[in-house]
Amino acid sequence: MAAKSQKTKNVKKASKPLKKTAAKTKYQKVYFFGNGKAEGHGAMKDILGGKGAGLAEMTNSGVAVPAGFTLTTEMCDQFYKNNRQFPAGLAKDVDANIAKLEKAMGMKLGDEKNPLLVSVRSGAKESMPGMMDTILNLGINDKVVAALIKKTNNPRFAWDSYRRFIQMFSDVAMDVDKHLFEHALTEAKHNIADKIGKEKKDVKDTDLTAADLEKLVGTYKAIYKQAKGADFPQDPKTQLWAAIKAVFGSWNNDRAIFYRQKYNIKGLLGTAVNVQAMVFGNMGETSATGVCFSRNPATGENKFYGEFLINAQGEDVVAGIRTPQKISLEASREWAAANGIAESERKAKFPSLEEVMPATYKKLLSYKNMLEKHYKDMQDMEFTIQENNLYMLQTRNGKRTGFAAIRCAYDMVKEKLIDEKTAVSRVLPEQLNELLRPIFDRTDKEAALNSGRVLARGLNAGPGAACGKVYFSAPEAIAAAQNNKEKVVLVRIETTPEDIKGMVIAEGILTALGGATSHAAVVARQLGRVCIAGCGALNIDYANKLMTVNGHTIKQGDYISLDGFTGEVILGQVKTKPSEILQALIEKSLDPKKSGLYRQYKFIMDAANKIKKLGVRANADQPDQASDALAFGAEGIGLCRTEHMFFGGDRIKAVREMILAEDVAGRQKALAKLLPMQIEDFTGLFKTMNGLPVTIRLLDPPLHEFLPTKEVEVEELSQEMQVSVDQLNFKIKQLHEFNPMLGHRGCRLGITYPEIFDMQVEAIIKAAVQIKKSGRDITPEIMIPLVGHIKELQILKDSAVAVIEKVLQESGVKLKYKIGTMIEVPRAAMTADEIASEAEFFSFGTNDLTQMGCGFSRDDSGKFLPEYVAKAIYDKDPFQTLDQTGVGRMMQYAIENGRRVRPDLKIGICGEHGGDPDTVQFCHKIGLNYVSCSPYRVPLAILAAAHAALK
Amino acid sequence: MAAKSQKTKNVKKASKPLKKTAAKTKYQKVYFFGNGKAEGHGAMKDILGGKGAGLAEMTNSGVAVPAGFTLTTEMCDQFYKNNRQFPAGLAKDVDANIAKLEKAMGMKLGDEKNPLLVSVRSGAKESMPGMMDTILNLGINDKVVAALIKKTNNPRFAWDSYRRFIQMFSDVAMDVDKHLFEHALTEAKHNIADKIGKEKKDVKDTDLTAADLEKLVGTYKAIYKQAKGADFPQDPKTQLWAAIKAVFGSWNNDRAIFYRQKYNIKGLLGTAVNVQAMVFGNMGETSATGVCFSRNPATGENKFYGEFLINAQGEDVVAGIRTPQKISLEASREWAAANGIAESERKAKFPSLEEVMPATYKKLLSYKNMLEKHYKDMQDMEFTIQENNLYMLQTRNGKRTGFAAIRCAYDMVKEKLIDEKTAVSRVLPEQLNELLRPIFDRTDKEAALNSGRVLARGLNAGPGAACGKVYFSAPEAIAAAQNNKEKVVLVRIETTPEDIKGMVIAEGILTALGGATSHAAVVARQLGRVCIAGCGALNIDYANKLMTVNGHTIKQGDYISLDGFTGEVILGQVKTKPSEILQALIEKSLDPKKSGLYRQYKFIMDAANKIKKLGVRANADQPDQASDALAFGAEGIGLCRTEHMFFGGDRIKAVREMILAEDVAGRQKALAKLLPMQIEDFTGLFKTMNGLPVTIRLLDPPLHEFLPTKEVEVEELSQEMQVSVDQLNFKIKQLHEFNPMLGHRGCRLGITYPEIFDMQVEAIIKAAVQIKKSGRDITPEIMIPLVGHIKELQILKDSAVAVIEKVLQESGVKLKYKIGTMIEVPRAAMTADEIASEAEFFSFGTNDLTQMGCGFSRDDSGKFLPEYVAKAIYDKDPFQTLDQTGVGRMMQYAIENGRRVRPDLKIGICGEHGGDPDTVQFCHKIGLNYVSCSPYRVPLAILAAAHAALK
């Protein structure tokens, strides 16, 4: 009974995926593909597996694929149900398909003249890379190897193929310990060491000659016989059935079972088995192998692009021993020109495929067109020409640069190949980054690379290209830039808020310490500066104004170039040019109509804006940043960090006066000086944003960040402030903190020094009143940082409301305003229900929430976080991409509890993560209202939000 | 209909609480008490309110209470239901009760010879302190004031009483703005400034003479007339009804409504009104007033204890203008002897109540006995003798020292007054602390206080008394103690692990910086050392080996004394003596049978151990600490901090060698030296704990804590290690962290340097194997610190299991072991379900969980946390008492999710909070299996766990 019911079940199961296919394919055991026609197709992954369906699809698209056939996943299922026996009738069907295959290829298994070799590969519905078995070169034996030698005139290749096959087949199909073969190989290499004059350990596989390999094949066969008590099987069909059995068996090996458990892959029938003819590009001058792209993957230009080698195997193209030739004549000529090769030499030594095999080239061109049309995307293809027969081995959507991505997407819409939504989905948000940054002149950069001028690599913390003279201090950088109009690169062990003016003026910033969210990196991103952070190889000597890097000494005033895309630090000058988009959008120095790139960018961003649901704001502290943000499409300011306003010349003096004051009266006196400046700051921002929402965060950093740290600076300050150096040092020591991240900052300052927050609130409201009086609308949002406890918020909100009502009463203006809070302390996330009863909005400060939630200091974690990412403890740096499982869970908990208490609670995120595409998509998923990020990341966030909405 | 049904409801509502009382009390509107009998009793809080029920209860207990009556809460309910009209028949009942009251007191309202004054007070079922209104001295008028003058011969008192009554009555009952009276009072004071030769602002209320006050009464009456358009009411009954109305009205004032909302007080009928005769102890030589305790509140001795003053008001006893006299003759004589007062002088100037009023004394004695028997607890009583009539004004359970608490509890069980459970509930866990610490000789301490030798106050971080010579560095302290057998007090700006030997050898530790969980405080508690931390007044000058404190200069070698109970730093020597319990329990220097205190302690602890459900373990790193912990009743070790084992002489060398090693091989070489030492450590612990569970935490602190910080120490280390100073400094700089709390420590060390954890695991298992081989049982628990991500635990657990299985295989011993984790990173708490899939136990590290959860660094929070506690943002320092709302919620979330995945998950807590009684009770509530705390806090934790179980 049980068996019967199970059988019925199986039939049902199996019939389901088949519904889409024709009735005649029901119960078909083996599916053939080849000669331009396949019995299956791309939608049949259930029974053909991913690879089998892909091969069928490619065949059906009209290109020549090495023929083959696929044993269905149902066969695997039956195999296990039958106690690891092949289902009845399978052998017959396989035999029939072998015959078809031999006919299609014009070759025969085991033939002594024209032997067919095949690959036997697994392929389940879901990709399980590396988990199951593969056998190549099946069909080779003592006679076939001789035939191969004859055909290829390459005995080394033939013997090496045989050797590899014996090892692979014995290990995978016959369970012979593969180490036995590896030992034999090692021994063979040691044996020739003296002969070729190398140390034993230095001998490579490629040092073995055809004769050596022939001898090794003998040894391998002996090993096999010793292990199995029988000769190595010479009959290709015997080989084939053993290989099929092995692939079916590998479905339930430990690795595969573990993989399916880990990735929760369930309900599959088993693996399919793909038997496909092997083709060789090294069968003489009528054979070749190559790779090509349907469009240029660097520029996106719709030109056929690729390389090939005559009489070569696939790995030869990659290995770089021979110089690959270009496929099209045009590309070949361009290449020769760029490399200073005369046309005659080119034609003789490096002719194009178009010239050498014009018919095959034409065919390849038509394949390219067919495949791109079929897959509706730029294709990256591998092909082999075997004795004038062109075979496409693989095609996939091609990887491309940002420039190519946006151009392809735009062009393909114009070509009516894809629609707008698809175009948006084709550009990765990160790729936009590239389009916005200054770039190196490609030739100049290549020259630098080729001449060994790359000094070191650091973290690519701010993309773009920068070139300038090195300065090791902000004042000297500023002086050089202002007085001598020099382009400067600021190099620091690490940066602090005191360096900010130097950072503004520098082309690029290079630091020895700090991670992706270090001060340098964060500010650089906000300013749109090129930045390489945490470049450990720098040995900076401030005293002598120089640094040594891997043996080179760079003095103040020497040129270096920073590639913020790659993290490369390059000695000397490399020519840069600004992004066309920036020229058109921000600098207004380029007529947008004249820029193709801008046109493409605008097209994609417009489409993305139509698609996205999530709001995108910017983090901006100054009107110019706000104006950039608007140009980039920001819908408001999500975070104005008021502390950045405190560093200007006169301001820092007043701030320091306030910090050094001994009592409330003294602080208030200093704050009174800051008040008009802050009013001006906020008025400027409000004006620029013209009615869009502006969220202003009250003072956040600990006060010691505003005091100098160096002796000489302390002395200067002492004179300026008329306060003794001792007193200053005492105050600095008093304010010192062991763990400043967990110290006296944020709303804690507001609790202990209410007058600071009061001044800021007064300034915000007075600025808003000015705007309102001028007839424009404004709803300022006041954000209180680092709240951990509802009572902090209550106290500070009460205090703010009192100040606000007083200002409004005095001014006689009516004004809406909101008071909300950052959610950046884990305790706040845990008690979000309490906090939502007071807060009118939440903004997740995910930098701090990550620091405290994960217990990582962003300033220190560089010491171990790379190892954490390397060991896959975190998939990505949690300061760059939000840790969704941990910090994300905390956010979800807070959202759920906050909205339970206040259903219309507006929730945003304003940490550095707000500009990270993965995080933006997560924010969309968990129901945030908006993300806020630095202006230069706004386009990325918009695009990521569109991608999230498309999912 | 609606009105009717509501009426029925009310009857039902009201009848409910009345069920317990006799049928005749049904619907009774007013309840009388006086003359030794009350119509109500203590269980009638529903209708008499808390105060009314208490007065009835006290009256019924047989003591004389100033007579009075209570208008029920039902009257208040009816008052509101009747649109703020008094219920019908109430006036009649009040009149009848006034008559009773006048008879009981032998005085009459408004009488010109013997006037009765009354107080009118609110009193709901639930205490709502300060929310509702009270009027005192009601009944006073122009005629009565004259009578009072005559009776008391104290015109100032009489006029002041009148003045106060007018103000209070006008404000509370008649809604006259009280500021008007306050202005008049201020003016009156300013007017006499010249006359008495004071600045206006310095004139006090007490500077006003009877004549001034009489004049002020005139002004007050004029203010009243101005405000109300009528004369101030002279009729006492008019006054009374206005007062009753005001008290009823105050039930629904904003403050009271807010209070009930805030504390979720629901379902009450309203407030009762208590009208009670006022009595005066200042009516001549036959009057007096005093306070007394039924037993000695300092020692618990069953001796009557109290003070009084003839012809005085209650506030005079407290004011300290006159020296209060003792109540009993015995106490009076003892007091005189202690203060060097001759018997003749004592008798003349400070006679006891027993001598002055023997009959009244006898009565007071009998009242004392009655009340203690009635309330079954030591009573703190207030009494007034008015013209030879003794009245008890208040009795409540008396506050007492730890010594008194335990003695009373013990004695009362022996006296059969209370049972064991009650006895356990009578001793507060914190009080045990006092019993275990060395104490100052009381007389000597008082002498020090009286002679102004208290230099400053700090945080009472480690209770007890310590006296010794000041040393400002650990090495000098050690030298002085070891070479010269000096008792030393170690004074540091702050302590670090390098000071640990000095801390061990010191009597007491005093620091200028740091809070309750600073290194100094934590280690001091663990070592049982007296400690005063964060004493900001210290100005320590290491270079000159001295400190200045509020103008005093203390040099190295000078004596100071530390009162760790109070935080007082005292100049010079104060005699100390060790706790008897310690002598008996730990030092074994005292025969337990000879110590009454020990007997009491043992009795209470045995009872507590029977009651509690929660396990109590200790944090201990050394066998001697473990042995102390056992003596204190610990049931295992919940936290062995292995880093403390790394600081011994040879060990720190090997540790430093490991840190300075450039590669794995170098580290392994150094670790090999540590291995045998660690095996010895763990073997010792296991032996001492004899089968009880021992949880060992792998290395937790960042490596830089093991390196020296001072130049001279670096130079020493350089010579010792044969490493250049530059190299050392480079390493130290390399290891420096901006936020070490969030840095490279805990399991992060295990991830980057697996060999360190491997060595420790090997040592633990080898030690356990030795124990097992010797025939004893052992299940070591290996705890991995600072886990934030399941993958950290997976990697480190896999690595540990590999080491363990290897050791076990080699030894041939079978052993159970557990691998668990600290939950101290918020992320771990948030992903406890994932982590529980790997962890066999959880231990909450609430120090770090508080630091990261609340975002407070325990080393820095001293700068703002006191203000936070002062502003009631946190009720208590969250590093001392767990923040239940925030951090506690995180714990509950983790427990819930952890046990969902692993239902039998053992969960404990091993932060400093494990010894805090409130936290222990919370841990009981949320279902922890055990708490773990420093050995000296184990008894507190046991008692707190018992209290939790009793609740």
UniProtKB/TrEMBL annotation, chains A, B:
NCBIfam families: PRK05878.1 (NF004531), pyru_phos_dikin (TIGR01828). Residues 604-947 form the PEP-utilising enzyme C-terminal domain. Mg(2+) binds at residues 824, 848. Its cofactor is Mg(2+). It catalyses: pyruvate + phosphate + ATP = phosphoenolpyruvate + AMP + diphosphate + H(+). Substrate binds at residues 641, 697, 824, 845-848. Belongs to the PEP-utilizing enzyme family. Residues 485-567 form the PEP-utilising enzyme mobile domain. The active site is at residues 519, 910. One of its GO terms (molecular function) is ATP binding. Keywords: ATP-binding, Kinase, Magnesium, Metal-binding, Nucleotide-binding, Pyruvate, Transferase. Its EC number is 2.7.9.1. Residues 1-20 are annotated as: Disordered. This is Pyruvate, phosphate dikinase. Residues 46-83, 90-410 form the Pyruvate phosphate dikinase AMP/ATP-binding domain.
